[in-house]
Amino acid sequence: MNLQVNLGKLTLSNPIILASGTAGYGREIAPYLDLNRLGALTLKGLSLNPWMGNPPPRIHETYAGIMNSIGLENKGFDQFVGEDLPFLEKFKTKIIANIWGKTIEEYSDIAQKMNELERIDAIEVNVSCPNLEQGGKSFSSNSHVLCRLIQVLRQKVQKPLIVKLGPNTDDLNQVLLFMEKEGVDILSMTNTFPSLAVDVENQRFIFSKKTAGLSGPAIKPLALQLVYDVIERTRLPIIGMGGIMKAEDALEYLLIGARAVALGSVNLINPSAAMEILDGIEAYLIQKNILDINELIGKVR
Amino acid sequence: MKKAKIVKKRFLGTSFVELWLEESDIAHLASPGQFVMVASGTSYDPFLKRPFGILSCQENQFGLLFEIVGRGTQILSQLEIGDQVDLLGPLGNGFSVNPNEAILIGGGRGLVPLCFLAQIFTIKKIPFQFFFGVKNRQEMVLIDYLSELSFPMIVSCQEKVNGFYCGTVLDAFIDWFYQFPSKTPKKIYTCGPQGMFQALSRIEGIQPNQIEVSLESRMGCGYGVCLSCAVKKKDAPGYFHVCKDGPVFQLGEIEL
Questions:
Q1: Contact between B218 and A217 using a beta-carbon 8 Å cutoff
Q2: Cβ–Cβ of A24/B237 closer than 8 Å?
Q3: Alpha helices of B82-163 — where are they, by DSSP H?
Q4: How high is the pLDDT of residue B123?
Q5: A265 contacts in chain B (CB < 8 Å)
Q6: Has residue A56 got a pLDDT over 90?
Q7: Which residues of B touch A243 (CB under 8 A)?
Q8: If you average pLDDT over residues A152-161, what whole number do you get?
Q9: pTM of the model
């Protein structure tokens, strides 16, 4: 049975990826699964310098989902290289570094440093974070800024470049065309959905930043629709994600045309979920007498 | 992920539940102050597992004692003997367990990790004094629970109840401390409401670094990937994460 999938220049042994921010830097989740069985592991988002993130509360449970406002807390590039990279050297699974910055220059600097690390197989760019040069609005809320960012990053990154788009991207068609022209390799879609919760007892917002990101099974049909729509509009290979809990959810994304899928919130409640989902996909292929997973991809359009 | 069968269950009053679960890894590996993440159902709603401190371990079983405070604990309280739960653990860093002697100070449901610690001290013949306080008559069931275990206890209740010291657990501790200042051991272990920690850190003659505190926190994953359970570092920028860096900290290293 063939589970191997190609996303442009990036080849994965199977289509199961762990999404950024839900698996740490590999070490944290390693006791619960076989990292080598993953298609790829995406690292928790890194910035050039350490970033402390938001004050608590940082998480709030909703119906079949969670809202988070972690605020991109991370240890910064140097500490990652010192503490975590040596551990990752021991595995053969593909490693995707997720990067972000508060300015285009910061993105550019971390992208360049990450590009020099041999162990890193691809670089995923989070473009949903606040842009300090635009009053804290998301980079993806202005297509001109986003295109400039992508252009700068493409010049710095020789490894496969993945752009992770949130649910609300300004002038998406324009951005998709630009990404194809600039040679972005892969799109990952989607990020958490902007969402709000109110503390009724104390009559204030739950989160200090008001808006938080919603994820989990609550968003799956919404995310699936977004992925379906974007596949219609671009030739770029897509990593689909949003609310995948079991093999059937992953298969939905593959059937509508995602080349790979990423698991996020499910890792928080079941750190072994990726193995179970992979087993479930294999069982499905056997049951349907399918020898190559690529036969499934895009079958339902 | 582990599965454990509920082998014993009893209500303490109307809002506390003691559950015993069969899972030999956890029962053999857990140390006082560590916790488990327990799924409160098999559906995705509620979505997250809930963190619970470990009450005690016996052979292949371990105990939990929790207060019904929301949907997750409500659902868990309705499970019956024979039911299975999904869980992760033991997680986090527990208390240091080799002091020469110790003071334990617990409030309300904060008794859980201290109860486990007191059992270990008893086995190791480490002398200790256990101060435990509750808010009101309803919570007196926790005092009854601890009384069965025959630890050296001084108990208190904030509501006036005949025959009990009336005041907070810290009032009771301070009375004792000023009466026998020379008896105060170097090591103090505490778990309870945040206000209690703050008041404890203000007592003259006690250093924050002689106090080990077990924190409660809302958590996403319990194993260090989601970074939800942030607690501010004292005298340094940034946050600790209760699940991975704790849940036991020195009182002097965290900002409450």
A1: no
A2: no
A3: 111-124, 140-147
A4: 97
A5: 47
A6: yes
A7: none
A8: 98
A9: 0.96
